[in-house]
TrEMBL record:
<protein>
    <recommendedName>
        <fullName>ASCH domain-containing protein</fullName>
    </recommendedName>
</protein>
<dbReference type="InterPro" id="IPR015947">
    <property type="entry name" value="PUA-like_sf"/>
</dbReference>
């Protein structure tokens, strides 16, 4: 498992499943599970942007926290068309001058895990990976609200 630190409110938009592109300065060959960490710095100018509003940005939401791991995703692909000045289909969340890290299978953590972040792609401490994995498997095992009896 690798991790990226993302400023709020963008980390929230990822964790809530709206933003499936992470704009990065560099490409990566890494594919696999990516921990989404909300960094301590907040992009205050973006909190009122239309995109963030459509994501339902709410400072009272636990996923709006800072300095914590808040979600897990799969890094499925990296699109570098924009840095070559080419068109791509990455949608409204993709910046013009960035590599588009395409995220799939985004799962918000049931509660944030306070941790330090770093720049770029970073390796989470084993204790953090263990905590995230335990949280997600406990959630899978628990019955979900609205689940009816098994289909016959
Ligand atoms: Zn793209």
């Amino acid at each position: 498992m690798q991790a990226i630190s993302v400023r709020q409110p963008w980390a929230f938009a990822i964790a809530r499943g709206h933003k499936r592109i992470s704009n990065q300065n560099l490409p990566t060959a890494y594919r696999g599970t990516l921990l989404i960490h909300a960094s301590m710095r907040v992009d205050l100018d973006s909190c009122d942007s239309p995109l963030i509003r459509t994501a339902g940005w709410d400072v009272r939401d636990p996923l709006a926290t800072i300095g914590a791991a808040i979600a897990v995703a799969e890094l499925a692909d990296v699109c570098s068309a924009a840095v070559r000045d080419e068109e791509c289909g990455c949608g409204p969340w993709a910046d013009r001058d960035a590599h588009h890290w395409r995220l799939a299978d985004i799962r918000a953590l049931p509660r944030p895990i306070v941790s330090l972040g770093r720049l770029g792609l970073w390796q989470p401490l084993p204790s953090l990976v263990t905590e995230v994995t335990a949280m997600l498997s406990a959630e899978r095992a628990a019955p979900r609200l609205g689940d009816g009896p098994p289909a016959r």
